[in-house]
Design goal:
By secondary structure, the protein is mainly alpha-helical. It is 45% helix and 8% strand. The protein has six helices and five strands, in the order βββαβαβαααα. The strands form two sheets. It has a three-stranded mixed sheet, with helices on one face. A two-stranded antiparallel ribbon has the order 2-3. Helix 5 packs across helix 6. The longest helix has 15 residues. The two termini are 22 Å apart.
Length: 161
């Protein structure tokens, strides 16, 4: 899996005969690569196909990868896919390499991202989660014979999750 910031999502299915990443139904921002395809080459091919013929649009993207080595290999895959055509590489970062200042600037530039992050509800406390799970457990016939057992099961299930 990979994550990209900015731009429009890819189509649901790749064009006939292409093997680039394609978007899973109902999962915006999550893309899959066929298991028989080289992953990074397929990602680079899919991103380039999504952007069309304008190689300068690559510079508008930030692609997050798990580590620096993957980032280096993805840059190589982009160069191979460009085949000598000029283009400015996207920003390719590993999460550990991104500083808070950069993220703040990116969020300030992107109103949709800023709003989405502001809409994330605060996390529930451990006790709240345990009691919510206990309430759901009590709804299951025969799962817990008392509220005390449901609360204990809710705690265990919360730890498991």
């Amino acid at each position: 899996m990979f994550s990209m910031m900015k731009g429009t999502p890819m189509t649901d299915r790749p064009a006939s005969g292409t093997h680039g990443p394609h978007k899973r139904n109902d999962h915006a921002g999550v893309y899959t690569v066929a298991p028989d395809q080289p992953f990074l080459a397929a990602v680079a091919r899919g991103v380039l196909a999504r952007l069309g013929d304008d190689p300068l649009r690559l510079s508008d993207l930030t692609i997050l990868v798990p580590n620096r080595d993957t980032g280096f290999l993805l840059k190589q895959a982009f160069m191979e896919q460009l085949g000598g055509r000029p283009g400015i590489m996207p920003r390719i970062d590993a999460p550990g390499d991104i500083d808070d200042g950069y993220l703040s600037l990116r969020m300030a530039d992107n109103q949709v991202l800023s709003q989405a992050l502001m809409d994330i509800p605060p996390p529930v406390t451990r006790l709240e989660r345990q009691l919510m799970l206990a309430t759901e457990i009590m709804k299951i016939p025969g799962m817990a014979s008392s509220l005390q057992k449901a609360v204990k099961l809710g705690g265990e299930l919360g730890n498991f999750l």
